[in-house]
Amino acid sequence: MKWMxxxxxxxxxxxxxxxxxxxxxxxxxxCGKGEAMKKDPAGAAAVTNIDHSHGGWWCVEHGVPEEECxxxxxxxxAKFKEAGDWCEEHDRPESQCFICSPAxxxxxxxxxxxxxxxxxxxxxx
Length: 125
Fold this sequence. Notes:
The chain is mainly alpha-helical. It has helices at residues 2-29, 33-39, 41-45, 77-82, 105-116; strands at 58-59, 64-65. It starts with a helix and ends in a 9-residue tail after the last helix.
């Protein structure tokens, strides 16, 4: 009869040990988000300490410095039109019309990178 108690105790001990081992493996492995963020340069580049609100330095919505964004600050429209820098078709400064010429965004990307050391977020419009 003693062997039955020893066998049952051994079985319970092994089962408990297996359960604890499995639980520790699951807890230590995590969800893997840390590794995904390290390998995803686009996700890492979007993280900066620059204020992206409309009161900040960069207009995330339009992809230009906030103080030059004529789409947000309509008081700038006259200045751009007087300088002959206006895209009538898209109602924005020609120098900021990434629709007519997607290569124009490179100038603003370079300015953002020079200031922050990171790639800027993609313009929403």
